[in-house]
Amino acid sequence: MLELERVSRHFGGVRAVDGLDLKVRDGEIVGLIGPNGSGKSTTVNLVTGLFSLTSGQIRFRGQDIAPLPTHMRLQGGIARTFQNIRLFGQLTVWQNLWVAQNSPADRAKRGFFSRWLGGQSGVRDEIVSLLEFSGLAHKQDELASNLAFGEQRRLELARAMATKPKLLLLDEPAAGMNSEEIGQLRERILKLRERGLTILLVEHVMELVMGVTDRIAVLNFGQKIAEGTPAEIQKDAAVRKAYLGGDAAAAEGGS
Ligand SMILES: Nc1ncnc2c1ncn2[C@@H]1O[C@H](COP(=O)(O)OP(=O)(O)OP(=O)(O)O)[C@@H](O)[C@H]1O
Ligand SMILES: [Mg+2]
Question: What whole-number distance in Å separates Cα of residue 74 and Cα of residue 41?
Fold first, then answer.
């Protein structure tokens, strides 16, 4: 599904990502962890096209996507959520999902205005089902900026889903959540995989990443220092050292 080969991104002298090899196979949930500043968000930004590569290759479903702008990667099936929530605050929950609808087939068949006026039933049904999936049905007419923090995170995930992705990149979706919300997020992520999605999960919350991923890659200073199953990663000496040098609490939280 996704293949990074010797991928690097430097900012001046900072090697944010440095020679990273990473594969995410069809239907997998892969975790990407590492101390603060280790290059996780930069990796997500490289895959979505927000940043250009300094060197290396990124292939999505066998195709070199480096030349493609972000919107074409999105249309091709790569969606993401942001570490810092980005919603249209002055639009309602419903509208946030409506503008994200991404169906090339729909677009070809009918134009913007017919969708706008008719609220085409296919589109409507999809939004309704996304609202139910996210537990936001009762908030559909609320402005996004009025939602509680956890609800905003749910809406952001729903909006990413509205684009009908094949690959979903989640950048710290559990940040700031309480443990009940983390449990619900875990269930949602597993349901998305059942629906055939492939997921790259960037996360500091070990409770989530250890419980939901098939495989985890660990970054430190832009380089991959370990890769393996959650159980292997928990035992890995290099990983423990990287975390204890940085965010000890996060490493201890999951074990
Ligand atoms: N746009 C940018 N310009 C300059 N330096 C950047 C930029 N984005 C990231 N960096 C640097 O690249 C390195 C990796 O940052 P990145 O945001 O990818 O880390 P991260 O692993 O996501 O960290 P966190 O866990 O804190 O979110 C850091 O040293 C950061 O300061
Ligand atoms: Mg980050």
Answer: 17
